[in-house]
């Protein structure tokens, strides 16, 4: 936030015109610099806005990716449990078959 305050005018008593010319040139140069800096400030604000938008999009994308990863982990866990059950059933049946064959 910018707070504007009044700057008291500087009174100079100049005796010749030659000493005024460098001051006018300096004033003109400073005005040009201020204009250029205002333009750069506007450009930087626009760039900042674009970067914030991109950042927000990337955060959303990351959240979506995390959700997909969590779903994939849940599915993988369920498949692992099902595979373990099937392996257990296979070994039980194989053991039963071996017992029946040995009689």
Sheet with most strands: none
Q: Can you count the beta strands?
A: 0
Terminus-to-terminus distance? 93 Å
Q: How much is the radius of gyration in Å?
A: 39 Å
Oligomer description: single chain
Average pLDDT metric: 90
Give the ordered list of helices and strands: H
Counted by DSSP, the helix tally is 1
Helix content: over 70%
- The backbone outline, from C-alpha atoms, is rod-shaped
Low-confidence stretches: none
Q: What structural class results from the helix and strand content?
A: mainly alpha
Report on the architecture of this protein.
- By secondary structure, this protein is an all-alpha fold.
- The chain is 81% helix and 0% strand.
- It contains 1 helix and no strands.
- It has one helix at 20-102.
- The longest helix has 83 residues, at 20-102.
- The radius of gyration is 39 Å and the shape is rod-shaped.
- The model has no long low-confidence stretch (mean pLDDT 90).
């Amino acid at each position: 936030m910018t707070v504007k305050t009044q700057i008291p005018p500087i009174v100079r008593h100049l005796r010749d015109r030659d000493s005024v010319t460098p001051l006018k040139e300096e004033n003109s140069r400073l005005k040009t610099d201020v204009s250029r800096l205002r333009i750069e400030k506007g450009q930087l604000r626009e760039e900042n806005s674009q970067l914030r938008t991109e950042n927000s999009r990337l955060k959303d994308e990351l959240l979506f990716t995390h959700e997909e990863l969590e779903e994939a982990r849940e599915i993988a866990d369920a498949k692992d449990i099902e595979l373990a059950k099937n392996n257990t059933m296979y070994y039980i049946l194989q053991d039963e078959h071996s017992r029946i064959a040995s009689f």
